[in-house]
Amino acid sequence: MNDADLTPTPPTPPMEPTPEEPTRTELTRTEPTPTGSTPAKKRIEQRRWTVLFPVVALIALAAAGLVLFALGTSSIGIEPLLVGAAAALIPVAFVVSAFLWIDRWEPEPAKMLLFAFVWGSCGATISSLAFNQTSRVLGDLLTNDGTTFTAVVGAPIVEEATKAAFLIAVFVRRRHEFDGVVDGMVYAGITAAGFAFTENIWYFGRVFLQDGLGGMGSGVIALFVLRGVLSPFAHPLFTAMTGIGVGIAASTSHATIRVLAPIGGYLTAVGLHSLWNFSTTVGTGSDFINLYFLIMVPVFAGAVAIVVWQRRREQRIVAGQLAAMAQNRWIANSEVALLASLNGRRNWLRAVKRKSGDTAVRSVRNYQVAVTELAFLRHRIEQGTAGQSAEHRHGVLLDTLHAARAAARR
Questions:
Q1: With contact defined as beta carbons under 8 Å apart, do 409 and 2 qualify?
Q2: Which helix or strand (DSSP H or E) is residue 288 part of?
Q3: Which residue among 15, 232, 332, 400 is least crowded, i.e. fewest CB within 10 A of its CB?
């Protein structure tokens, strides 16, 4: 594939060859570390931990999934469990697709999103199950009604904490994956979608065992309308509040805000979750309707507005960095307009697909993602929120961009 193959609008071809290999900025200059020094040993230990931790975590999550499966089959049987899984697939596919659509500017790594979903569906679920049993005992001691206490108080606190654990882990261990509020909402939404998926399997399976498929008044169909049609975004909406808080923390250098924002987001998530559980377990039908239309719908609309606002902010950030990147000869001048909007990027990919096929499309898409990640990092560096590894990360992303560019020009 040559440069002309990638040209959506001749005679200004993107991927034009640069006159000379760009050099790294001062951000990437580091002094060599003597062999055997303490920093070198720390980096080796960090790499070992980076390789070991995902393996251990996946094994633990797989074990959690097997335990949940065993508990489900022993409680309601394999047939209700399969019916529940089939019914739960529909809303979760819709919810996950919505969050992937939100994440179009800078798609998060697929393995991270998969990890988020698996943590929500297995890790957070089984952790919440264990703590909710303790909450039920505590509720019996305090109120003589452990079930209601767990639904309204214990479950919201525990479940939102277990879902938030993944967000905090990503924020602490993989800070560079957080560019702002949108990333926080996406990770929160995918994690909560996994949690809701497992929870729905249990609810649908249990109702099928009791009432069968039923109709609009009872059974799986009625519950599907409630959980799959009216409220598929309930859990993602709750946890998105925590995601917004973590996203704010990632976007500021103010120490107090970085602590208070995630806490405030978590408390908001717990409050919404508690109100929701109260309306569905303790309140009357009118209580549920009032909560749904007076609180949940406006909160959902507010979350959508935040997504739209933040996506426009992300576009401004990327567009604002492109001129300097072109001046440094990291990208071609003819690519600036194409990279500055999602519509320009889509048109570029369509043109490449017509001329060069799917392989070329993947290469150009990887190049676009590399440009976006570098633009976000440079913005965070300017804002003072990039963290201590900014220099190293800048160099890595610049190398990634060069590699992606070379692959796209083949």
A1: yes
A2: helix 285-291
A3: 400
> Mean pLDDT for each consecutive 10-residue tract of the chain (410 residues)?
43 45 41 46 50 67 77 85 92 93 87 92 91 84 84 94 95 83 95 94 90 74 87 94 95 90 97 92 78 90 92 91 93 92 92 89 90 92 83 89 83
Q: Is the separation of the CB atoms in 307 and 202 below 8 Å?
A: no
Residue 23 neighbours by CB distance under 10 Å: 9
* Run of H or E residues at 309: helix 297-327
**H or E, element range at 181:** helix 181-211
CB within 8 Å of 270: residues ≥ 6 apart: 156, 157, 160
Q: The whole model's pTM is what?
A: 0.82
Secondary structure tally for the chain: helices H, strands E: 16, 0
CA 277, chain centre distance (Å)? 24
Residue that the structure tokens 């099928």 belong to? 208
| Residue 354, C-beta contacts closer than 8 angstroms, at least 6 positions apart | none
- The CA–CA distances, whole Å, from 109 to 103, 170, 210, 322, 325 equal 11, 12, 41, 22, 23
**Helix extents (H) in 119-180:** 124-143, 146-149, 155-173
16-22-28-33 Cα dihedral, nearest 10 degrees: 120
Measure the CA–CA gap between 210 and 206, rounded to whole angstroms: 6
Residues with Cβ within 8 Å of residue 311, at least 6 apart in sequence: 102, 105, 182
Measured in residues, the chain has a length of 410
C-alpha to C-alpha distances, 299 to 296, 309, 349, nearest whole angstrom: 5, 15, 36
